[in-house]
């Protein structure tokens, strides 16, 4: 029977409810949930490509819940998935008051998320991801992010506060078949809560804490007849900045002021078909991240001196339609998505003050707009046979525009824009054709990307316990860039087109030693597209030019073995993985000797290797819970490869002796300065890849007590991240990031026979000043800054479920 006939057979249609009735229904439902998400959010119900994240054990037993993931385009128990994957539930996020993906650093093995330039997120897994700060317009992430199956195109989106999350799946290692493009490091798959048929209910919470923290969340699920359900959720999150500017007191950084709204409607007229339409909006208006110059005279990590105010504004919108139609022997799935992004920022590029740097370097405008359309179409076989398969195709159409204006101290000062501000930019309508004397860098770029992929993966169950899986993907990427570079040195326009055609693959063999013990071995290759730099090297003639106008695609071939185990009648879980990477053409920021004429280039070969372990233990009828994870990893550059260190280049350009060929702006006209910079190239052979600590991990323990009128569950967590390098140059004074350990505490009280819960959380209770990341500006200022983890925060939460 066709879909149209089944609709007629069930008599499915929209309820006859007028607009006034709808308005009254919504008005009655929403006020009840405008205050407060419970500490134990309800699991999401079935929806296209989403499933509940856990199933509870039988009463009276001590057993670890079965976690179900959708990483393989179908719902599979995580213990039966032959790849390194971590699933973090929404309830776990709440217990540690996790609001950003970056808060998962070290709690998920080998995951690193740090910031560059105050807003760009550099995500790496096992040392593979993104090492191209300030170039998100022209590069792709090496760890791809998906929300409900929609590819999220720009790394700035990771600044968004987590919202209405059911669980997060982190796939470690290259995904060469089902994900492919921009997944040579791994995948972050955020699964949000979905509408539920036949159930009216909701939940809400209110949190308040130090630094004037306030968070309000609310959600409601409204069934309409037997075939439609609507879910509406909203969140507002605010807190004062953690860092205080002693020069500009209003310029408090690391603040948060954002809002999120989401609405989803599920239509399921027959059991075989479902359609979910979702809209989501996010807005942020804040000062930005605190990145403190290492030369800053303030000894207190939470105080700094910057003489130009930072500003960060981000607005995104996401629309997607998820369709699923189940036939007798396979399912048809479609994900259609649109993402819009509008980002405006100004910043103190030097992260310092003219009082101790003797110059300023300020970005008065750094504005990005992006539109991204994607369509994925999958055919997925039904389970229960000896042969499982997935066939699909993906198309992405992305257009981006960026405007940057950067000002430095003029010599001599000949312009009225000595201190650049947005109002200063407003009086410079001809800034591109008639740049002022202190405009050292301006750029107006438009980038278009078209990505297409076809993929297939099949698993053959040789025996009930032995399975062989093979898959492949063909990736086609076309990109073009129009770039106008303008400064006090002149104006030039570049138009560049390039493309990649790269196949990737995956193969693994897994064996169930027992029903509770799985071992596997796999090989996979991931890929990240190349791109264009939008620079002009034609004027340098026969001089050596390290960074060209285009850069190559990078690939990562991984060999992995692993084991997933339950012991002690499912009271103990232990998952292990070991890997070895052949990482080719790693994209990173390279420097040409000319200031502001650098860009992305490639390191030919890096080898990386490591081991990871995750464990969970429950006892005493689930009252006692212990979790732990650890990652040991290392890497090194293979063979000789020479590159200019930006800090060395900065010294040549910014502080040359009068006898140097680089004096008097010699970098722009003196071939001797160029040759001097080339002579300073360093051999990177044997260097360690950035964002790859030798050791990192986390552990937590909780116990549930019976107390008068309810239960009380204290929980303690320890997070450790070992020392690592910021850049591939491994310069000790600049690039070394020391280790830190962080303690988080949580206390949950659940009154008996009520719908209320109360939580008290304390994060970073010892107030350790751990350094989350360092950032050395590869363009212009060449200054190095540090970003600290959040200080001690105490937060109370009251939640209600109805």
Rounded to the nearest angstrom, the distance between the terminal CA atoms is 40 Å
Total of domains = 1
CATH architecture: Beta Barrel
CATH class term: Mainly Beta
Structural class: mainly beta
Largest sheet: 22 strands, antiparallel, barrel
The CATH superfamily label reads: TonB-dependent receptor, beta-barrel domain
Low-pLDDT runs of 5+ residues are 1-58, 412-420
Assess the beta-strand content as a share of residues: over 45%
Radius of gyration: 27 Å
Q: In words, what does this structure look like?
A:
With 802 residues, the chain is mainly beta. The protein has a single domain, classed as Beta Barrel (Maltoporin, Chain A). Helix content is 7%, strand content 53%. The chain is globular and about 80 Å long. The two termini are 40 Å apart. 51% of the residues are buried. The model is unreliable at 1-58 and 412-420 (pLDDT under 50).
Entry keywords:
single chain; 802 residues; mainly beta; Maltoporin, Chain A; 22-stranded antiparallel beta barrel; 5-stranded mixed β-sheet; 45 strands; globular; disordered N terminus
């Amino acid at each position: 029977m066709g879909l149209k006939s089944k609709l007629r057979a069930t008599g499915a249609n929209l309820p006859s409810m007028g607009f006034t009735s709808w308005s009254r229904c919504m008005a009655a439902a929403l006020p009840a949930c405008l205050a407060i998400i419970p500490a134990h959010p309800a699991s999401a119900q079935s929806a296209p490509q989403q499933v509940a994240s856990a199933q509870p054990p039988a009463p009276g037993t001590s057993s670890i819940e079965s976690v179900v993931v959708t990483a393989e385009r179908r719902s599979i128990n995580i213990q039966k998935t032959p790849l390194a994957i971590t699933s973090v539930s929404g309830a776990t996020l709440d217990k540690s008051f996790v609001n950003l993906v970056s808060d998962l650093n070290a709690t998920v093995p080998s995951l690193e998320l740090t910031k560059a330039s105050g807003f760009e997120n550099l995500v790496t897994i096992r040392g593979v991801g993104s090492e191209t700060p300030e170039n998100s317009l022209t590069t792709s992430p090496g760890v791809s992010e998906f929300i409900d199956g929609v590819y999220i195109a720009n790394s700035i989106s990771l600044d968004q506060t987590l919202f209405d999350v059911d669980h997060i799946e982190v796939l470690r290692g290259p995904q060469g078949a089902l994900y492919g493009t921009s997944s040579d490091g791994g995948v972050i798959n955020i699964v949000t809560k979905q509408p539920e048929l036949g159930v009216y209910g909701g939940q809400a919470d209110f949190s308040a804490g130090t630094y004037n923290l306030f968070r309000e969340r609310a959600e409601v699920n409204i069934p309409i007849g037997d075939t439609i359900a609507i879910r509406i959720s909203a969140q507002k999150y605010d807190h004062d900045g953690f860092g205080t500017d002693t020069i500009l007191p209003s310029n408090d950084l690391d603040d948060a002021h954002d809002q999120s709204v989401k609405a989803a409607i599920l239509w399921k007229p027959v059991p075989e078909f479902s359609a979910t339409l979702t809209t989501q909006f996010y807005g942020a208006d804040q000062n930005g991240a605190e990145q403190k110059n290492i030369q800053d005279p303030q000894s207190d990590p939470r105080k700094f001196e910057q003489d130009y105010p930072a500003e960060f504004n981000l607005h995104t919108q996401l629309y997607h339609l998820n369709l699923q139609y189940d036939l007798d022997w396979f399912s048809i799935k479609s994900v259609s998505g649109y993402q819009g992004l509008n980002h405006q920022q100004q910043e103190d590029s030097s992260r310092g003050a003219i009082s101790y740097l003797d110059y300023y370097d300020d970005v008065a405008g750094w504005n990005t707009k992006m539109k991204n359309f994607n369509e994925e179409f999958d055919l997925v076989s039904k389970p229960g046979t000896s042969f499982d398969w997935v066939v699909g195709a993906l198309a992405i159409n992305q257009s981006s525009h960026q405007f940057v204006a950067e000002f430095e101290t003029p010599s001599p000062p000949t312009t009225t824009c000595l201190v650049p501000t947005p109002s200063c930019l407003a009086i410079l309508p001809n800034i591109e054709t008639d740049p002022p004397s202190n405009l050292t860098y301006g750029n107006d770029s438009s980038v278009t990307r078209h990505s297409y992929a076809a993929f297939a993966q099949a698993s053959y169950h040789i025996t009930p316990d032995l399975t062989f899986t093979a898959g492949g993907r063909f990736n086609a990427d076309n990109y073009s860039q129009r770039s106008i570079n303008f400064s006090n040195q002149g104006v030039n326009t570049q138009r560049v087109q390039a493309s990649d055609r790269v196949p990737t693959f995956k193969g693994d063999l897994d064996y169930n030693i027992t029903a509770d013990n799985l071992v596997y071995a796999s090989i996979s290759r991931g890929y990240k597209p190349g791109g264009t730099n939008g620079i002009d090297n034609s004027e340098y003639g026969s001089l050596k030019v390290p960074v060209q106008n285009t850069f190559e695609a990078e690939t990562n071939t991984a060999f992995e073995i692993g084991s997933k185990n339950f012991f002690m009648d499912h009271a103990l879980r232990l998952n292990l993985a070991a890997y070895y990477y052949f990482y080719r053409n790693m994209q990173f920021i390279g420097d040409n000797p000319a200031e502001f004429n650098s860009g992305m280039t490639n390191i030919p070969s890096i080898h990386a290797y490591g081991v990871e372990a995750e464990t969970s233990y429950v006892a005493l009828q689930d009252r006692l819970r212990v979790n732990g994870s650890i990652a040991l990893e290392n890497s090194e550059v293979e063979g000789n490869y020479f590159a200019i260190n930006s800090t060395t280049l900065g010294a040549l350009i910014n502080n040359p002796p009068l006898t140097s060929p680089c004096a008097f702006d010699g970098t722009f006209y003196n071939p001797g300065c160029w040759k001097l910079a080339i002579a300073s190239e360093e051999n990177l052979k044997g260097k360690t890849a950035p964002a790859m600590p030798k050791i990192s991990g986390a552990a937590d323990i909780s116990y549930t007590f019976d107390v008068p009128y309810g239960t009380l569950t204290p929980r303690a967590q320890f997070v450790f991240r070992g020392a690592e390098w910021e850049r591939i140059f491994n310069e000790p004074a600049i690039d070394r990031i020391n280790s830190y350990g962080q303690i988080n505490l949580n206390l949950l009280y659940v009154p008996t026979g009520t719908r209320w819960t109360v939580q008290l959380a304390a994060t970073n209770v010892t107030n350790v000043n751990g350094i989350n990341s360092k950032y050395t500006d590869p363009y212009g200022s060449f200054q190095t800054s540090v970003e600290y983890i959040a200080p001690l925060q105490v937060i109370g939460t009251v939640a209600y479920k109805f």
